[in-house]
Amino acid sequence: MSATTRERELDATERAYLAGHRICRMATVDPSGQPQVNPVGYFLQDDGTILSGGFDLGRTKRWRNLHANPRLSLVVDEVVSQDPWTVRGVEIRGEAELLVGPHDLAPGMSDELIRVHPRWVHSWGLDGL
Fold this sequence. Notes:
Layout: E1 3-7, H1 12-19, E2 23-29, E3 35-41, E4 43-44, E5 50-52, H2 61-68, E6 71-82, E7 85-100, E8 112-124
Antiparallel strand pairs: 1-8, 2-3, 2-6, 4-5, 5-8, 6-7, 7-8
C-alpha cells in the first residue's frame, strides 16, 4: 500500500476516489483551540474544490469555527478488507470559503455553503483505482 503527500491539487486518482463517496469527517478548531470533528456530506467540484452544506449550516458550531478560523481538515477513508487488513483514503487540509446565497447543491439545504480550497493532500491505498 503506497501513500502520497503533496501540497495543492488533488490528482486524478484522488478525485476519482472522492467522487465515489459522499460523507467525510470535517475537523475545525474553535476560538479556544479545541478541535471539533463532524461527519458531513460533500460534493467534489470540477475545479478541485469541495462544497459542503447542511440543513441549518449557518447556526452550527462548525460554521462559527470556520468564520473565526478558516483552516480545516477533511478525511474520507474506508476499510477495504479485514483479511488482509487493507485501508484507503484521502486527507485534505485547506481553507474554507464561507458562501451565503441560493444554490442547487441539494434539496432542503440552507443558503450557507462551505467551499474547501485544498492546500495539502495525503492519500493512501489508492493503487489500482
